[in-house]
Amino acid sequence: MKLTVQLLAASFLAQAALGFQCSHNELLKKYNVDKYTITHSSSKDTPPSTTNEEWWINICQENSASAPEGCQKNDVLCGKTKVTLNDDKDKDILTQLIDFPESVSSGASENDKGELVVELKDAKWGSNSINARLTFICASNKESSVTSVTWQNKEVQMVIEGDAGCIKKEGDDKNGDNGGGNDNNDNKDDKNKNSEKKGSSSLGSWFLWLITYALLFALIYLLATSYMSTRGGNFREFREEFVDRSTSLAKSLPQFTKEVVAKVVGRSSGSQRGGYSAV
C-alpha cells in the first residue's frame, strides 16, 4: 500500500513537472520563452532602511540555469525582499521569500491582445496561498526584462517585455520535427510544378483559341467570297468555287507561314508572297 502511494505521488509530480517542459506544451513551444532566464531588481527608500526586491523567472525546464541563492533549485518563479539598515549597509536582512516551484498548478494562454500569459496558482507562503500572473509582451531584438510588478489581493502580476514574448521564427524550434524543412522544400517544389503546369496550360489554351478563331474567320471569308463570285448562280457553282478557293488557300499556307516566321525573327528573305490572288 505504501509503495502504491509513493508511485502515485511520483506520477503526480512528474505530470506537474511536464507542465513546465515548454517543448511539450502546444502554446509555450511557439514562443521564445524557453530561451531566457529573467531577473529583476528594484529598491526604494524606507527610512531608516532601504528595501530591495528581487525576482527570478525561469518558466521552462529546457533552460537549465541555476536558481539564485535562497531559492529552491526547482523554482519557476522566486521573489526575495531584503532590508538594509542605513547605519549598517553591509548587512542585508531577508524579510520575505516567495517560491513558486514546478509542483504548483500552472496554465498558459493568450489574452485578447495575443500576448502570452502564464499563470501559477496556490504557491504556499506560510499559512497563505498566493498566485502569480506573468504577461509576456513581444519586443523583438530587445533583452527580456520585467517592466511592472504589482500586487492584487494575493496575486503578484508581472509584465515582461522583450524577445521572450515573441513567437519563434521558422526554423528556430529545434525540438520540432527534423523533417519539417524537407516538407517545406517539397511544398515549394510542388508549388513551382503547379505554377509551371498552370503556365503551360494557359499557353496551350491561348494557342488553341487562336487557331479556332483563325479557322473560323477563314471559313467565313471563303464562304463570303465564294458567294459574291457566284451570286445569281446555282448551288453547284457555289460549291465548286468554295472548293477551289479552299484548295488555293491550303496550298498557299506553307509559304505564308514561312514568310510570317521569317519576319518575326527578322530573317525575311525579301521574297514576295505569291499564290494569294486566287483567294
UniProtKB/TrEMBL annotation:
Instruction: Name one matching Pfam family.
Output: ATG27
Q: Which domain of life is it from?
A: Eukaryota
UniProt GO cellular component terms: cytoplasmic vesicle membrane; Golgi membrane; mitochondrial membrane
Sorted alphabetically, the Gene Ontology BP terms of this entry are: autophagy
For this protein, the record's PROSITE patterns field holds:
MRH
Is Transmembrane helix there in the keyword field?
Answer: yes
Family, according to the entry, reads as follows: Belongs to the ATG27 family.
Protein name, UniProt field: Autophagy-related protein 27
